[in-house]
Structure formats: structure tokens, C-alpha cells
Amino acid sequence: MVKGVRFRELRDIGDPVALAQAYERAGADEIVFLDISASIEERRTLLDVVRRTAEALFIPLTVGGGVRTADDIAAALRAGADKVSMNSAAVADVNLLTEAADRFGAQCVVASIDARREGDGWRAYTHGGSRATPLDALEWAECCTARGAGEILLTSIDRDGSREGYDLGLTRAVVERVSVPVVASGGAGGVADVVDVLRDGKADAALVAGIVHDGVCTVAEIKTGMANAGLRVRGT
Amino acid sequence: MRITVFDYGAGNLHSLVKALAGAGRDIRVEPDPAAAARTDLLVLPGVGSFASAAARLVPGRDAMRRALADGVPCLGICLGMQLMFDASDEGPGAGLGIFPGRVRRLRARRVPQIGWNDVTDATDPLFARAALRQAYYANSFVCAPDDPRAVIAWSAHETDRFPAAVRAGRVLGVQFHPEKSSEPGVCLIHEFVREEAA
């Protein structure tokens, strides 16, 4: 079981390098940098942050935001990212996933899927959840893995920022559909929600952001809660 | 002590170089395999595919084999461990052949394996000294040594049990990424370097 700490809009959280190191010391298993609004200038800043973080961090680092081409992926990997996540660019051209997997290996290709509930299913969105696609989120997840993605970063738009808990139905549906690790994101309000999405949602990993940035709970408390619930936790 | 990281050109060596750093150590990243072999300790990192790395290895393969036979310590990580074997099902090309055997695909539903996994049945004291019981993996292929006595630690992905680490004297191969396995992983690297520097 792994758990990541997600960074959104890097400018809002102080020194991301120091914070990433602090989360590693607290027991986080992975760090995710994601800047959904990244302009070209902001991307340069992001890569600089990635470079400085990679030299100080000894857990995996996933980077996403503004990735358009395979060369963008190469730049992020060179800067020190272990994995690169992409959403809008993959929807625009799914061949990007295949090209990235061929060039860099499927283990570093993360398909980021933002899904919103619609009727009995879920629809995939791009551009930070603002633009609907014609894609069914479950079919899209399957397609991404068939085309080269080695991991799915699955965000529930309905739950993101709500602190009402992860969308367990969405998570479980995607986990049952694909044969790559699924990282659940969006909605964590506390330790119990993380336990729920790993145990009942069957996610391979859970991402948290706001609850640890804002001090609702600590990474250590989450891991203790997971261990108490009988989930496998690193370091025990 | 000069530590040389052979760079196959596949990128991201930041964490590894940082993890190797220490007092009195001169860390070099060297793209030329023949030049890389002239060192006090060789590191084969874990990024890329077997075929492309084996192709990059060709001009210095003999020099590297000789250096290792002469007792130069070597740490191979992930693909770097796989390069210590004869050949791989992933693609064409010759490895260093330090460990007789082949590299095969993981037999599991979820491939690649990406994430933390338990490391068990460790027989080498390095693992106890580093307190390494879990490690971070990112791999689709694993090593199958002809002689299972080379294996010094194991892991299992789904039902497929595979070597987490192999060792032959001063040559150590690890399938996981110690430089991404937080403090115990970095500690394992330091313990190995310290042991081989002595």
C-alpha cells in the first residue's frame, strides 16, 4: 500500500522542496507535484522545483501539469521525476501514451483521469475538470492502459476539495477494469477516508493534499490509522 | 574513493548520485562504458530498456567484465542488476554475464510492478544493517539466476516470487530502487559502499 501527497499550485504552499522532505520524514511513500494551470513560464519553475526536490528526496516523485509532448516528458524525467502524469494531452492524442511508454518505459507513464459522475457512470474531463470529453471514464481508463499507461491517477471531480470522502464506486469500478495500479484522489477529509478507499475502494494508493497541508491530520496519523485497520503499511 | 555511475543516457540520476555522496567520495557520471570501468566502484543505474542499455554497453563490455573479475565492486540497480545477467526476454543484446541466467517477464496480472513491496528472506547482513524490509519497485522484468544460491533476498509480486537481490563477492544487484526507498534504501547504498571501501 502506498500513499502519496499531492501538491497543487506549487506557488501556494511555501517551499515545496522542504515540504516534500518533511513529508518523506513523516512517512509519505510518494510525492506528486501537479500544477494544473501551468503556463510555459510556470513549467520552467516547476522543472526547477523538480530538480531541487529530486536531489533531496529519496521516495518516488510524480510530476504533472502542462505536459504536451514526449519531449516535455523527457524534460521532466531529466529534471528528476520518476513518473510523469498527463491528462488533456493524452485525450487530445492517445498516441502520446504509447510514444512515452516506448521511449521511457510504461513504469513512468501515468494517465491522469478526472472523472465526474453522470447518470450510472462517469465522464472524463480535461483542463482541470473544466472541459467535458465524449469519453466514458472507465472505457478511457482501459484505453489508456492498453496504449501504454503504467498507472492511473484517478480524481473524482465531484469529491475533489469536498472532504466528504473519496468516490469509492468510481475507484472500485476503475480498479476492476484495469490491470495497472490505481491511485485514488479527491475527497479525503480524514484518516478514515484514506482507509476506506484503500480497503473498500480497492485502490492501490491514496493521494492526500489539503488535509495534510492544512493540518487536519498528519501523514503519521494516516499511517497509524491504516495499520490499525489492518492495512499493510511501510515501516512496520 | 572514485565512484562511477555508468549513464546509459536514459536520464534521472539525481537521487542516485545524491544517495551515493559522502565524505571522501568522488562521484562521476560517465556515459562511456570503457571509461566507466576505470573506477574504484561502479554503479549501473536502473533506467531504460535492456536492449538499448546493452547496446550502449557494447564498446566497454569486455573492460567492465575484466574490471569486475579483477575485484572492482559493483552495484547494479533494477535494469542495472538485469545487465549483470546473460540476456533478457525484454530485448536483444548481451549482458555482462556475471550471473549465469536470463531476465524474464513478471508472471502477474499487474505488470509493470510499481510501488512498495516487502523484501524477505534476506541472508546478507547488509539488509539487517540497513533495516530494509520494504523497497520501491518499478519493473516489468525480473532475474532468473541459474544458481539460486546467488539470491540474497526475495520479493513476490502477486504470486510470482523473484530475486530482490543477488550477490557474488563484491558484485551486488538489487531489483528495487534503493535510492527511492527512503532512509533504509539510502542506508543500504551507504553500507555497501562502506563495506567495499574497507
Structure description:
The complex is a heterodimer of chains A (236) and B (198). Chain A is α/β, with parallel strands linked by helices and 236 residues long. Helix content of chain A is 40%, strand content 24%. Chain A has a single domain (2-228), classed as TIM Barrel (Alpha-Beta Barrel). Chain A has ten helices and ten strands. In chain A, α6 (137-146) packs parallel to α7 (168-177). In chain A, 52% of the residues are buried. Chain B has 198 residues and is α/β, with parallel strands linked by helices. Chain B has a single domain (2-197), classed as Rossmann fold. In chain B, 27% of the residues lie in helices and 33% in strands. Chain B is built from seven helices and twelve strands. In chain B, the strands form three sheets. A seven-stranded mixed β-sheet of chain B has the order 2-1-3-4-12-11-10. In chain B, strands 5-6-9 form a three-stranded mixed β-sheet, with no helix packed on it.
Write the layout of secondary structure elements.
The complex is a heterodimer of chains A (236) and B (198).
Chain A: E1 2-8, H1 16-26, E2 30-34, H2 40-54, E3 61-64, H3 70-79, E4 83-86, H4 88-92, H5 95-104, E5 109-118, E6 121-126, E7 131-136, H6 137-146, E8 151-156, H7 168-177, E9 182-185, H8 191-199, E10 205-208, H9 210-213, H10 219-228
Parallel strand pairs in A: 1-2, 1-10, 2-3, 3-4, 4-5, 5-8, 8-9, 9-10
Antiparallel strand pairs in A: 5-6, 6-7
Helix pairs in contact in A: 1-2, 2-3, 6-7, 8-10
Chain B: E1 2-6, H1 14-20, E2 26-30, H2 33-36, E3 41-44, H3 50-57, H4 61-69, E4 74-77, H5 79-82, E5 85-88, E6 99-105, E7 113-118, H6 125-130, E8 134-139, E9 141-145, E10 151-157, E11 160-168, E12 171-174, H7 182-197
Parallel strand pairs in B: 1-2, 1-3, 3-4, 4-12, 5-6
Antiparallel strand pairs in B: 6-9, 7-8, 10-11, 11-12
